[in-house]
User: Fold these one by one.
Assistant:
Number 1:
Amino acid sequence: MKNPKPQDRPKASTANKTAAAKPVRRATRSRSLYSAAEVDEIFRRFQVQRPAPKGELEHVNAFTLLVAVVLSAQATDAGVNKATRALFAVADTPDKMLALGEDKVGEYIRTIGLWRNKARNVIALSEALIRDHGGEVPDERDLLTKLPGVGRKTANVVLNMAFGQHTMAVDTHILRIGNRIGLAPGKTPDQVEQGLLRIVPAQYMLHAHHWLILHGRYVCKARKPDCWRCVIADICKSPEKTTDEPAPLVPLDELDPVEVAEAEMAAQ
């Protein structure tokens, strides 16, 4: 049998040619600029500096923590605390919050940005907890993120602080640090979160997001980092840093006077 002439041979479809011509691109993930030993040393120093860091949002139980984190969106922790001290004194459970009502909740949180929408969310959140969870805050991310006003970051904060789970709640401070110093580069909070979860040693995970938030809030600030106050200045690979000399590594049991003054100014 004779070989078929070129014009008789079946032609590849245009789609197949296009597919063959373009290589499949795999999603790439940005890598940390730091070795495992450097990451371990960074968090070791954070642990020495703040042995038992605590979130700055005041709360008395898992429910008030959840409400406080919801209210903290686009607001300072200090500002939220001023509004919620009186609120939580009269409504520290979903039932009490629901009985208070949206208008009354709004009166308590009027000084917080977007307070009308937040008051509505707090009431809807309380209703959902009573209806779907027996008035208890669930300890699963998927269940938390189904609640009104609760996103992934809020869920991660609650899971970490209320239930001791090893989560990484990426806020603006952590997003900035992850990229500025190259610790966990990423365009989105989810990318930075996943990067940090890959590199932070397990023994530091419980407090890791608190250390990073405090570092971003009081040292590696948005406008201009205070490198002279940085305990990891010698390890830091940021092109913005102004010194290679680390600050003295001493425990800080509480916020120092400078940090307290800054927090109060931010809340005004």
Number 2:
Amino acid sequence: MAVGIFDSGLGGLTVYDAVSKRLPDVPLVYFGDNAHAPYGVRDADDIYDLTTAAVERLWEAGCDLVILACNTASAAALRRMQESWIPKDKRVLGVFVPLIEALTEREWGDNSPPTEVSVKCVALFATPATVASRAFQRELAFRAIGVDVEAQACGGVVDAIEDGDMILADALVRSHVDALKRKLPNPDAAILGCTHYPIMEAEFQDALGPDVKVFSQANLVAESLADYLDRRPEMIGAGTQSVFLTTGDPQKVSRGATQFLKRKVEFQKA
């Protein structure tokens, strides 16, 4: 009855943590493609190839439903996968839609025409590949009208977090927020469009100021997944054990993950 969670590195552990607390009885198989992280600087074809290989590995582990906890993969690969690659008995879901539904105050699965919403100016912080894809703006346009989105590509932040250099990560966050504010001085809301960024949520909030509502994904994705499984319980796969898999060095990744989640985590070679 396992569900798979995929990320290019450690960032998806924020989603894993939230899902494991929301659905404690569901075994979760986490796959980190640490050997090829970060994805945010790769081209779309490369991201697609790496993502499909990882999803196939999660299917092998008994996960019929896979969450792409990587915003870059969700932005650059998911639509292509859903259109031509995913078998009818499998599901792959991204992390953008729960975030946009929260931003636009929509219920899960509300497919009514786009309407005006209270938020008018949104700051999007994401990887270069996610920003280049414009996937967030595309999904938002299906649900809301009249929202101005200013995107800031946050180069270097993922690398700093993966390396455990939080001083550098803090400096980069503040630099990217300053750059965004020069383009959009007074956003109503800010989207942390990478699953690594919740680790730096306090730094983003501090740099943006108290009047900007910051949306990050982990808890929103966990709630959306719980609702989805209530509706589609048949999508829980045959796997029975929780496990952490990585394409990188398991010992090194385990140390990073333990620091990331502040509890002991042991990865195996994928």
